[in-house]
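hey team, just a heads up i'm posting the complex here instead of the shared drive bc the drive is being weird again. everything in one block, sequence lines first with there labels, then the predicted structure for the whole assembly after. its two chains so it's a bit long, scroll down
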Amino acid sequence: MTEIIKRDGSRQPFDAPRISKAVASALHDAQVKDPDFAEYVAKKVASTVAGQALVDIYDIQDQVEELMMSSEYHNAARKYIEYRQTRDLEREARNALSRDILGIINQDNGDDNDALLNENANKDSKIIPTQRDLLAGVVAKHYAKQHILPKHITAAHERGEIHYHDLDYAPFFPMFNCMLIDIEGMMTNGFRMGNAEIETPKSITTATAITAQIIAQVSSHIYGGTSINEIDRIHAPYVRKTFDKHLTQGLRWIEDESKAREYAMEMTEKDCYDAYQALEYEVNTLHTANGQTPFVTFGFGLGTSWEERLVQKSILKNRIRGLGRNCKTPVFPKLVFAIKKGVNFSATDPNYDIKQLALECASKRMYPDILNYDKLVEVTGSFKTPMGCRSFLGVYEENGQLVHDGRNNLGVISLNLPRIAIESKGSEATFYQLLEERLALAKEALMTRIARLDNVRARVAPILYVEGACGVRLQPDDKISDIFKHGRASISLGYIGIHETINALYGAGDIYDSEALRQKGVAIVARLRAAVNQWKEETGYGFSLYSTPSESLCDRFCRLDRKAFGIIEGVTDKGYYTNSFHLDVEKKVNPYDKVDFEQSYPQHASGGFICYGEYPNMVNNLKALENVWDYTYDKVPYYGTNTPNDSCYSCGYEGEFDATSRGFQCPQCKNRDSDKMSVTRRVCGYLGQPNSRPFIRGKQEEVVRRVKHL
Amino acid sequence: MNYLQYYPIDVVNGEGTRCTLFVSGCEHFCPGCHNASTWDARKGLPFDQTMEERIIADLGDQRIHRDGLSLSGGDPFYPGNLPGILKLVKRVKSVYPQKNIWLWTGYTLETLSAGQQAVLPYLDVLIDGRFELAKRDLSLPWRGSSNQRVIRLGERRYAAADGGC
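-- predicted structure starts here --
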């Protein structure tokens, strides 16, 4: 008897009726009526395999195809072939799914798994909760690609023309990207979390504890970063309550009122420092449902009251001290310090002392990054902290009042600009033509994000929609879509690799050295901005242009383009694409000139941007660091100084470790043991600790190639 | 006087944002020297008027603030360099009395020759002493080994004027 080898390698007796059934079904689909033909094909195949002990299923299918093609029923043959192809594709997809799942369990760092496991430097893929999250991500991504997104969008994403970010969460789940939590509204009006009714806190200690709880909850319901805008202003009332409590206590025991006041201030200062220490520990020990430490950003710096200043100092002093026994540099929360003339810019300003503290902190812990108040207002229309690491909301008013807290970003689709440039083969006209097509694709993809949230009810994320994090108190059965309209939420077009795009499109010459090429770079970004403006006009949604951080995308787009077009000098040869509009990381220029080079872009990409400079260790030279900060004030809205200050637990050295492709090394004792060091580097807008959680390959390559700007 | 390197913007040789000049010529030959290529006084380019004008212009840059000038090497106090160095510091101090000058030397303050001492009134900070490999310490600001000293000459002068010390 004949046996068949199936696709999975197993064997099964030859079964002629299965053939006739498949052929009959193809005939039916092609609306052919010939009841005998199916039997005829089955018999014919049966006669050729008769006498053979073992036959491959593929050979049988080929025979069926040939028999059908040589008959008069060409349409039916086509149906049969289509059916086979669809099945093959489904099977292939199932295999890819199993491969990805196996990769999570086996953790072998092959090319593909490097991308999956090290995609996010903030996820420790070795631990079970993270693996559960990765597993959910793999399934959500496959399902969305197969069944939710239009086929051509999935295909454009797969080819690397566009990048549908965060597919492991959305559109499978109706989640959005990042937000500014309305902590003030939640604390003032009370809210319900889990089984507990939370009322307005009566001390700074409770306020920070509740803040940590809110962060944990919110971060489990969105996939991007959570930010607290002006935390000094928001927490100030609870500092005052703590003070009042201590004063009452003091007056009970101390007769001299000024002494009692002094006592109350000292106690409050201690409480406040401890409260932010607890908050920092909470944030760094939290583990969200997304399998990671929450991406949290605290914005502060503008408040000048005693309470607000105390909050600012407490945050900075805690950060300067570091975490734990080894005084390690914490990666979260990201700190963003606002600088404003008249508040803290000059020596005569009331908060100048806090700017000095911020400089010390940045030199030792890399954060805070700075927001230059006046420039930020000029570029984005109003002052606000970035959501996550660099997403900025536009202007939105309710009842004539500017509103920021409670607003969010709905997600990002990024364009692979270098790809378009490569395909244009040096023709600027072709480039802009292709760009139009890709923009249309990106817009369609972005609209799928909006559509996904259309009929979603508030009950999917009570903390966001019912309890006030989004600044609204909906009923559980209310639809949420209205709060994303009229520019209340932003939705962003992202882009990557202006540097490589210019190289691919115009060939010789570096964009930095040529005024003409600089203008070309700005013109491309201005065109993208015009597109999102138009979409905003058409739809009423807050479309914005966002300079994609490209933590993993820098690697992915370049890898795909290298596969498709080979190694192109100055474009695909480095293994990564340069972050948005940034200057090539290998270009040796001073930070002042780098700021000048990049300053033309944020005004166009006002939905997301950050500029930074690479510095040597600046612990002993805060004055020079301040010089650069001051220089940026009226040039770029948002600036980070990368001042590496690593520590070696082996010899005690504090300073910058050498970055090599084999990892990081202590320059004093040559220690390379990743357990005996703390190394902090900027991944994108966020920091990461590459010694303990490796960056994706392209990103590590980029980090190794970074040159100092001083 | 020859020089080997000039950084128009520097933040690692002295406080603030600076211009830094590395001159050629050194007779200390310290083992483990970071800049051994600068020992030979004939190396590098002649420090001419054009270079001096460039430093003066950079220090006065309106766009990028500079706190002062740093002189390193080699050794600016190498005997052959003294006339050139003296001329330069005098010029810088006369044009920019408010900007400071830092100077690195392998000699020690107590044993300076008359020619070397003639430069001192124009300096604000002197980092002195040979580099000693056994005392190498990367964590020390502005110097390579722990025997070397960061001497704030300006403060000493003010103290002396007040009748202190």
